[in-house]
Amino acid sequence: MTTEINLLEQKARAAKRASRTLAVLGTRVRNECLLAMARALREKASQVLEANQEDLAAAAERGLPKAMLKRLELDEAKIAAMAEGLEAVYKLPDPIGETVAAWKRPNGLEISQVRVPLGVVGIIYESRPNVTTDATGLCLKTGNAVLLRGGSEALHSNRALVEVIAPAAYEVGIPEGSIQLIETTDREVARRMMQLNQYIDVLIPRGGAGLIETVVKTATVPVIETGVGNCHVYIDEGADLEKAVAIAVNAKVSNPSVCNAMETLLVHEEEAPEFLPRVAEALEKEGVELRGCPKTRAMLPGIREATEEDWTAEYLDLVLAVKVVTGLEEAVDHINRYGTRHSEAIITENYSRARRFLSAVDAAAVYVNTSTRFTDGFEFGFGAEIGISTQKLHARGPMGLKELTTTKYVVLGDGQVRG
Amino acid sequence: MTTEINLLEQKARAAKRASRTLAVLGTRVRNECLLAMARALREKASQVLEANQEDLAAAAERGLPKAMLKRLELDEAKIAAMAEGLEAVYKLPDPIGETVAAWKRPNGLEISQVRVPLGVVGIIYESRPNVTTDATGLCLKTGNAVLLRGGSEALHSNRALVEVIAPAAYEVGIPEGSIQLIETTDREVARRMMQLNQYIDVLIPRGGAGLIETVVKTATVPVIETGVGNCHVYIDEGADLEKAVAIAVNAKVSNPSVCNAMETLLVHEEEAPEFLPRVAEALEKEGVELRGCPKTRAMLPGIREATEEDWTAEYLDLVLAVKVVTGLEEAVDHINRYGTRHSEAIITENYSRARRFLSAVDAAAVYVNTSTRFTDGFEFGFGAEIGISTQKLHARGPMGLKELTTTKYVVLGDGQVRG
Q1: Has residue A274 got a pLDDT over 80?
Q2: A419 lies in a domain?
Q3: Which residues of B touch A368 (CB under 8 A)?
Q4: What is d(CA B164, CA B43) in angstroms, rounded to the nearest whole number?
Q5: In terms of domains, do A66 and A181 share one?
Q6: Considering chain B, what percentage of its residues have pLDDT values greater than 90?
């Protein structure tokens, strides 16, 4: 154990040292390494796939659920997609060095706020090996060193990925230590990692609610909380019901396993008699199980009763809680009470109620007449996404390159002293 | 204890409820309350001063150090200054509602990023009662509810201040519960406060290194770390030594008890023989005790030896560590190793070394040819300051009104669904 903690600290210290060099590296090297890593991934895909087979075999032996095996599994196409992801990040503009603001003070001091890297970013994630290359690409593009701590079930895959991409990056001038994997999956080591404030500037957990809660509770390093989404769509009185059905189906069904999927549908009581049977038919056709409040069940006999747990659940599955409400204010109260401040939508034709919903609902993204599924760095046009923040500090909503940076104030004087 | 924790949770819940109303309140009420609170402070100054006398008597009885008594003590002038502070915040532009960015996507979605309040801000502070009104004013201006937890030694003063300003704010339309003091000073209650993620959005500790460390270690609520400053001034080869002496004296002496004061002076070995005696004379005239590295002591015989502790110390006092370095790179390494990423200055006439210092030093504010003492919300022209962040997330450097806000994405559609 002591050895493993020593190794962790050694890697973290090396990452901090690398970050000093990264911070003063120009755009060219940071960009070239993305192409070099993509090339290496393509050339050495078989090495990664072999390692992935080891993980898959071990996972099957341990009887891990199918969904997890699917997340863990790599193939040629997935590796090609990972390489393309790196190439796409290469093409994005460099946020580092941007002058965010600049002004001159009456005493002659020239102050500018300049965008700089965070330093060392710790990524704590679960079974998807693609996070290894995605996160590394985004961190290096923004001049950050990255410490990766993936799930134990993906250890061989992650190790192979780092063994392929890190030398490729170092070859073009990225300082050694910029990309490191914490290979032990011991929980005590993970705990220590989350408290290495002297070496790690930010932690970003990527995974389920349990992982995120653990990181938030354990870390003393600042955390960007990502991803838990108990999202709602509210069908207002007078809504265009055709749009409402299409949006509800899209928000639930287009990818039920992600955080921006709808988990609870709220329906105004005036629309419920017509809307509920229509939406239920469309959703059930897609295999969605409905759970309803008493009023919903009166109109949709045979569906299961929704309990308090259903209002708080992030199903990430083809299950949907449905509640009939008396109006906008009840919908807003329900969302502010049970929501996770992720993505919330109103379907309405009413101008004032749309505005009221947008201002009164406390969430990273609020929508009128469209699907919560759009909360996504690519859909927003950022060209990248390191996660979706559901906290209010630093970043809120989809996080692109800019959210992997901080700023520093540069102050130029000619002898000024403070009175 | 259970009662006190219940009371804490009750107050936090009330603050969260109030924050919902605050979030949709217009500029006018948020501004008027600042004038109303200032008026009430002036009218009821005697009530506050009486309570302050109780705190002072208790503190004197407990034998608290003079410096602490001075921080604790209020008088007519200080109360007038607190009222003026509120009036100054009244005059600042309202950051809430600002559109930070807005764009239209190819699918027709209109996305805008809008500035909104954080929600509930917890302020954990020590003996200065003026934080009570300063923080409340800044929080209400930015539409946040505030939960105040001051030091036990200032309890009577803080209670009187809240009893004066809160009713004045509520009178003009601020929702009840927006300004609350956690009156118990029990540590277990404080610990629970730092973990009330469901009610408190952000914690801002204001005080010494010990307080800040405790909050960072204990909190699960996101924290903005403020204030610890082990700041350096580096005198480069070829610096204008007259400016260098004036800046060094200003950085050390103008207010030694604050976080932006210089704690270590680094001097290029070529300048040391001339510069050290000059600066030592000027500093010793101001009562500064010097502690030096061996090379420094060779040139300034009789000063105490600087130990490893001196390089890490935030003295907040008329003490200064001095080190002779071989050049810029040693200075940068020393700063990045021992500094607290607060404020760092180079005194130089060399263009390239100035640029190298600005990019290689990792700190919230980096200076050329001026004093570290300028790291301050008022000196930067923000018109306000809730603290100086030394972390990299959310805010870095002096924090004004904008740093007490977050953003939300508002997305307007007309039926779009995600493919």
Answers
A1: yes
A2: no
A3: 411-413
A4: 9
A5: yes
A6: 90
Nearest partner of B389 among B333, B337, B336, B343, judged by Cα: B343
* Closest alpha carbon within chain A to B21: A360
pLDDT in tens, B371-390: 999 999 999 999 989 999 99
What are residue B303's phi and psi, to 5 degrees? -85, 160
- Contact (CB, 8 A) for A280 and A235: no
User: Residue B407: beta bridge partners?
Assistant: B115
Determine the Cα–Cα distance for residues B331 and A412; give it in Å rounded to an integer.
Answer: 19
Q: Which stretches within A125-240 are classed as H helix? A: 130-141, 155-171, 187-193, 209-218
Burial of A341 (0-12, 13-18, 19+ CB in 10 A): buried
- C-alpha angle B215/B220/B223, rounded to 5°? 50
Looking at the structure, tell me whether residues A218 and A311 fall in a common domain.
Answer: no
Give the gap in angstroms from C-alpha A103 to the nearest C-alpha of chain B.
Answer: 9
Instruction: Name the residue in chain A with its Cα closest to that of B109.
Output: A370
The pLDDT of residue B227 is above 80: no
State the CATH number of the domain containing residue A405.
Answer: 3.40.605.10
- Count of structural domains, chain B: 2
Q: pTM surpassing 0.90?
A: yes
Q: Kindly state the DSSP code that residue B385 receives in the 8-state scheme.
A: -
Among A305, A247, A236, which Cα is nearest to A271's? A236
Contact B216 A201 (CB under 8 A): no
Report the SS3 class of residue A408.
Answer: strand
Q: Do A295 and A321 belong to one domain?
A: yes
Comparison of pLDDT for B383 and B276, the residue scoring more: B276
The reply to whether A346 and A240 lie within a common domain is yes
Q: Using DSSP bridges, classify how beta strands A202-206 and A289-292 pair: parallel, antiparallel or unpaired.
A: unpaired
CA B341 to the chain's CA centroid: 14
- Structural contact between residues B89 and B404, judged by C-beta atoms closer than 8 angstroms: no
Q: Based on the fold, state whether residues A40 and A60 are members of the same structural domain.
A: yes
Nearest CA in chain A to B120: A392
The pLDDT > 90 percentage for chain A reads 90
Q: Is residue A380 part of a domain?
A: no
Based on the domain organization, do A151 and A50 belong to the same domain? yes
Q: Domain residues for B318? A: 231-374
Asked if B417 and A380 come within 8 Å (Cβ–Cβ), the reply is no
Q: Average pLDDT for residues A246-262, to the nearest whole number?
A: 96
What does the pLDDT read at residue B1? 66
Q: Based on the fold, state whether residues A238 and A147 are members of the same structural domain.
A: no
Residue type, A1: M
pLDDT at A1: 66
For residue B312, give both structure tokens.
């890490």
Read off the pLDDT band of A237 (50, 70, 90): very high
Q: Which residues contact A35 (CB under 8 A, 6 or more apart)?
A: A86, A87, A90
How near does any CA of chain B get to the CA of A392, in Å?
A: 6
Q: Give the distance from residue B243's alpha carbon to the nearest chain A alpha carbon, in angstroms.
A: 5
Place of tokens 């705190």: B55
Structure tokens at A378: 């690519």
Q: Is residue A279 part of a domain?
A: yes
**Residue B206: strand, helix, or coil:** strand
Which distant-in-sequence residues (6+ apart) come within 8 Å of B381 by Cβ?
A103, A105, A111
- The answer to whether residues A246 and A204 belong to one domain is no
Residue with tokens 């250890």: A155
Distant-in-sequence, close-in-space partners of B46: CB < 8 Å, separation ≥ 6: none
Query: What is the Cα–Cα distance from B340 to B375, expressed in whole angstroms?
Result: 14
Tokens 């810029």 correspond to B328
Q: Which of B201, B370, B415 lies nearest to residue A411, judging by beta carbons?
A: B370
In a domain? residue B384: no
State pLDDT tens for residues A3-50: 899 999 999 999 999 999 999 999 999 999 999 999 999 999 999 999
Q: Are A300 and A272 in contact (CB under 8 A)?
A: no
CATH (domain of B359)? 3.40.309.10
